[in-house]
Amino acid sequence: MIDGTERPIQRPKDSNTQQDTYSGKKKHNTLKNNVISERKGKVVFLSDTYGGRVHDKAICDGEEYEFPEGSTLWQDSGFQGFAPKGVTIKQPRKKKPNQPLSQEDKQHNQCISSERVEVEHQIGSIKRCNIVSQPFRNRTDYYVDDVMETACGLHNFRLTHRQLNAQKKAA
């Protein structure tokens, strides 16, 4: 599963940096990462950090992800046109201009959304660390990457710890 997430930052003083980090979607200065995760849990890959202006698909194109042959990739409509070789894509269907979605398409989209909600929950678990969800105020450049990597690592640790506790209780 793949999805993008934005994190708020303080408004930079430099006007060029302001333009690079301003997200029209969030109406705020943000930083953006793409997260690739497994079913039922762990974050497998975290992209580099980009300004909020950069689109999710543009991050994918720049990162050049490689997926195992024959894998299935669940993605949202923000990744329209992103189709790596040898991968089955599961993506919601968009409506055509001036035409509503058919009932079949609506059911297809609902099925995909019910599967994709998992990655949204994983991002929510990553953002339990308030430093990721609150405006980041540290001006040291590489700290923004370190903070997100640490939050993903804590998420993966929580999942592993839960699984070990469940196994101990079952034994």
Structure characterization notes:
Helices cover 42% and strands 18% of the residues. The chain has 171 residues and is an alpha+beta fold. The protein has one domain (2-92, 103-170). A hairpin with a 5-residue loop joins strand 3 (28-37) and strand 4. The chain is globular and about 50 Å long.
* N-end to C-end Cα span: 32 Å
Mean pLDDT across every amino acid position = 88
Biggest sheet overview: 5 strands, antiparallel
- Determine Rg (CA atoms, Å): 18 Å
Number of distinct beta strands: 7
Q: Topology of this structure?
A:
Layout: E1 2-8, H1 15-21, E2 22-23, E3 28-37, E4 43-46, E5 50-51, H2 56-63, E6 72-74, E7 88-90, H3 103-126, H4 130-133, H5 143-170
Quick take:
42% of the residues lie in helices and 18% in strands. The protein has 171 residues and is α+β, with helices and mostly antiparallel strands.
Summary tags:
single chain; 42% helix; 171 residues; five-stranded antiparallel beta sheet; two-stranded parallel sheet; alpha+beta
